[in-house]
Amino acid sequence: MAIATLAACGDDSTSPAYTPTQAVGITLTTAAATAACDKTKFSYTGATITSATLVAAGQTEVAGATGALTVTNPEYCKVIGKLNERVSPVDGKTYSIGFEMRFPTIWNGRFFHQVNGGMDGSIVAAVGDILGGGEASSGLTKGFVTLSSNAGHTAEAGSIGGGVYGIDPQARLDYGYNAVAALTPMAKSLIKNYFGKKPDKSYIVGTSNGGRHTMVAASRLGDQYDGFLAGSPGLNLPKAAVAQLWGAQQLATISTIDATTQRPNLLTSFSLADVQLVSKQIIAKCDALDGLVDNQVNNLVACQSTFNIVTDVQTCSGAADGTCLTSNQKTVLAKMHAGAVNGAGAALYNKFLWSEGIGSSGWRSWKMTNSTGNRDPLSVAFVFMVPPVSPTVLTGAGTTLLDYAINWNGTGFSVDNDAPKIFLSNSTYTESAMSFMTPPDLTMSKMVANHGRMMLVHGAGDPVFSVNDTMNWYDNNFKAKWGANASSYARLFIVPGMGHSRGGPATDQYDMVDALVNWVEKGIAPASITAKARNSTPFSGSSLNTEVPLTWGLGRTRLLCPYPAIAKYNGSGSIEDAVNFSCTAP
Hints:
alpha/beta; 2 domains; nine-stranded mixed beta sheet; 19 strands; 30% helix; globular
């Protein structure tokens, strides 16, 4: 009965007269494409086209982000340009929204806005990254017109990296929401320049900060896109960045002082063996909660009340050695999972859920390296705080990014004094980070009114953007508004064990783009998504996920289910094959 209920959710009962329609493609001859692929043929107010080049079919390229497979592209026109170039009145630097578009000669009638991750700042290849690990295709190979951008700024080289752009108020807004808002009508206009018509259907796809971009677009531009695919979304990204610095400060309390730098070496707080021990114990306690022992935790929610870091991991009598944790390590780990707080105990960000994904290398990287390197300290100091810090704070004698992150000798980020500044604005920075970085309407009313559809995918073991934050949004904002009809418009898929966007002990290869198109254009709601482990052919080299447990069968597949449903074994057939599982209530 649970399965039938999930399927029934595909009916759009709030607007029964709505009928899905499919995009209609256009195929050009090579001669026509050659004539059209001329930079003088593209025109849009405020845009400068710097080049237009017809790229022959057969060119090979990586399909998406790190871990992707190589694909063979079709013939396409590659257009590079910039929009809204200006000189900042604040820092005197020149800014523009740089972009790349690709127009396939055989077009499926759809537009794919590839919103990128991290701090943006560079125009990555507009392949149309479909997300997941080891992508076997791309938006371009599927026939979409694709777009990528730098979100309004170019990352600067040097010790303070790309974050310094945040000194310019408009660059902050472009990064937060305005670049996507400005590029969307431009892209549709250029598509009409090239093909003679605007796209029939438009999709926006991204992971991490790109997932945040997608959710912001669903809120602000819900009437300009038909489908939204948000991976590992940084819904409350400024809060998450603050939590990263707070976490670094907790780790510093149990780290060994480096003999050379005379600073805490955060990598000594938890060794890889330490976190893998925790992962092993989480599996021991929670694996069977879904009714099947398969070295994978599907019932994430139930695991939170089942696993106890204090009692389920042995306490060391001496130093940690991979078979136990010290009492101090347990205390810090428990605090970090409970969520960042200020000195008064008020929450600064959501809690993190216990997942076997803690044993992946990505957990230590995000918590110990990115939190003190050219990412979180820079974004908090220059992009999210009002006012931003002076660049001299991070470049002056005797100070480093690590010093700022851990507030070394009181010279860096103060949780009590600086964390509230992500909510501030002034006459120069007229919008706070929590205003320009987050969706202004968490119910996505504009998207719903336009009959849009959103799919979200999030790793249970994501160490930087809490999956609990996304679950809370779905339960307490979206479902609270739309009730039983919520799953008619948005569905969240949680990947057991997966880290940030990909990796970890997980089945992290999946294609949700096709499922989203079918939902938008055919009215077929995704009752499940089949995901595959990257531990067999054709994966090799960087595409191979070496963190897949050795106990798993080669090419294990699993169903990803719409939250709160989970995948349960049907009782017969191979446990390595998703066909023998069903999405049911926990």
